[in-house]
Design goal:
The chain is mostly beta strands. 8% of the residues lie in helices and 40% in strands.
């Protein structure tokens, strides 16, 4: 049945006769077209309000649902299932067409989106991610900084490294900093013999040079100085698979890979950062909503283009940060002297959930996304993500819980008076995460901040740039909102592709009655450009970790770290001696 005809029936008394089952369930079929999912949700609300049914199933017919704005699920949408009936993709992209040859390159005019020039930082050609033009194809060949002047907010680099982009208008530097990378928009390049002085735009320049940790590395002899690569310059477009967007001329350039015919290629340019928002309130949460079998694809991540990106850890970017001197001015009971002040913001997500109870994602796919894939944030309880597949994710695959509000200093214990704010009783189980964190290298496979009663079980995480599972926040051992968390039977392998000071499983802060058990951690990458080649671990309880039991985890060796931990931690039977039955039980089932 035609979708518009069906929606007309939905809004009439006839739908009560043909669409509502005796059980009280009602069904709608939805097919691709602008706003059809939004319209279907509106009609479902009407049915509930008019008491025609109390549980709705929106069957999404096969196809690509291209959005001009995020879908918003509201408290009025309770007891709804959005279910794919076949191959269903909810996409935030537009197709780029009209390609014409220009030497080795192909060029296309970029259309407007919602009446504005379209900008994006990702591109996919025939389902394969293309490379935003950069100076190295192999990250092992990255150049290294020579020195820095924090007061002048300047980095000094080899002149030969930046010569090609000296006159480029919007070039960027991506700088490796211990456990994070910073995206810095280049303001000026001044040649000084065989060196060059590079400055950057604000706000990232000021934040980047003010904060003490993480920091660009400058070491004796320069062996472990911070590495960097350059991107977003037409002069760097010299390898097959690379692209460059001229935002002034609204023109896209692409160097095709062998066998790609741009006249028939499907080129996806992401126009949205968010595809779906589940938005309730503490007093009126979205309740009992399920998403099943849906593919969420093609989003961008625009913050680095607009404001740069200077993270603290796990992708949380700093809005203000500085160092107190001398340290003795601030003391914390049982913790290190505090000299590091920082306030953080949270990256955008393709799917975000706030104010929700019993909101579930089952057997969904999250692919080709610019930043966080799925984010359960505030006022969330009894939700789950199970049996889902995450692949080609620019940031963290699954993010859970608050990392403190933007008004909360990141190193202080966080325990909101309204306990409903804390993400509680979330289940993350039987998911596969592969090739996440491929743009913001400091993100993680699964990241949990201030969470309570979270269960991270039987997931497989592979090919991530930093840590597999990171749980906790705050760098202190004072009681806070965290407790009763469980990380069990996960299989984490091929991690730390680009960053060290890492582990397969990593914790921060006081979280009593928390268990990390029966996990398998294996196969770490060995990038040459990390700041400390020995500073990696299979299991890592970091500053303030307290009340945690770590037991029966299989690792190839006992390479663990317990750094500035608090009280009440227990370590039992971790390493290569753990039984084969535990190894066999890890990962999705």
């Amino acid at each position: 049945m035609d979708a518009r005809r069906l929606l007309t029936i939905v809004s009439s008394w006839l739908f009560a006769l043909c669409g509502v089952q005796a059980s009280g369930e009602f069904y709608m079929e939805v097919e691709p077209g602008e706003f059809t999912i939004e319209q279907a949700l509106q009609q479902a609300r009407l049915l509930v309000m008019q008491h025609y049914g109390d549980w709705g199933v929106l069957q999404l017919k096969p196809g690509v649902y291209r959005l001009s704005q995020p879908i918003v699920v509201r408290p009025e949408d309770k007891y709804i299932t959005l279910k794919a009936n076949g191959d269903v993709t909810i996409s935030g992209s537009v197709l780029i067409k009209g390609w014409r040859r220009q030497g080795k390159l192909w060029v296309a005019d970029v259309p407007e989106f919602n009446g504005r020039p379209l900008e994006f930082r990702q591109l996919w050609v025939n389902g394969r991610k293309a490379v935003r033009a950069r100076d190295v194809s192999d990250f092992e060949q990255m150049q290294k900084i020579r020195s820095m002047d924090k007061a002048k907010e300047t980095l000094y680099v080899p002149a030969a490294a930046v010569k090609a982009i000296a006159n480029e208008k919007h070039a960027e530097m991506v700088l490796h900093e211990m456990w994070c990378v910073a995206n810095l928009r280049i303001k000026s390049i001044r040649m000084m013999g065989d060196s060059a002085a590079v400055t950057f735009h604000n706000p990232e320049s000021h934040v980047h040079f003010m904060h003490p940790w993480p920091s660009p590395m400058v070491t004796p002899g320069g062996k472990h100085n911070s590495a960097f690569y350059l991107t977003n310059a037409r002069s760097l477009l010299d390898e097959p698979g690379e692209w460059f967007l001229d935002t002034d001329a609204h023109r896209l350039y692409y160097y095709p890979r062998p066998g790609e015919d741009m006249r028939t290629a499907e080129v996806e340019a992401p126009a949205l950062e968010t595809l779906l928002r589940v938005e309730g309130t503490p007093d009126r949460p979205v309740s009992h909503v399920t998403f099943e079998g849906i593919r969420f694809a093609h989003t961008t991540w625009m913050r680095p283009s607009l404001k740069g990106h200077a993270p603290l850890q796990a992708g949380m970017f700093m809005t203000e940060a500085y160092k107190i001197a001398p340290k003795k001015l601030i003391r914390r009971n049982g913790d290190h002297k505090l000299d590091n002040q920082g306030w953080v913001g949270r990256p955008e997500a393709a799917v975000s959930v706030n104010g929700a109870n019993y909101v579930h994602f089952k057997n969904c796919r999250f692919e080709h996304l610019g930043s966080t894939a799925l984010d359960y944030h505030l006022f969330v309880k009894d939700c789950s993500v199970e049996g889902c597949h995450f692949e080609d994710i620019g940031g963290t695959a699954i993010l859970a819980g608050s990392f403190g509000s933007e008004a909360h200093e990141a190193h202080l214990p966080y325990d909101p008076a309204d306990r409903r704010e804390t993400c509680t009783d979330l289940t993350i189980a039987n998911n596969r995460i592969h090739d996440a964190t491929n743009e913001d290298w400091g993100c993680v496979g699964i990241g949990a901040g201030y969470v309570r009663g979270i269960r991270i079980e039987n997931n497989e995480i592979s090919d991530v740039s930093y840590t597999g599972i990171s749980m906790g926040w705050g760098w202190n051992q004072q009681p806070c909102a965290m407790a009763d968390n469980h990380v069990r039977r996960n299989f984490i392998h091929h991690y730390a592709r680009h960053m060290y000071d890492t582990a397969g499983i990593y914790t921060l802060g006081c979280q009593p009655h928390t268990f990390i058990e029966e996990n398998v951690v294996d196969s770490i990458y060995t990038p040459s450009y990390v700041h400390d080649p020995e500073h990696w671990f299979y299991l890592y309880t970091d500053e303030g970790s307290s009340g945690i039991t770590v037991r029966n985890n299989w690792t190839p060796s006992e390479k663990f770290l317990k750094n500035a931990n608090g009280l009440g931690n227990t370590w039992e039977n971790n390493g290569p001696q753990v039984s084969d039955s535990i190894r066999a039980a890890a990962g999705p089932k």
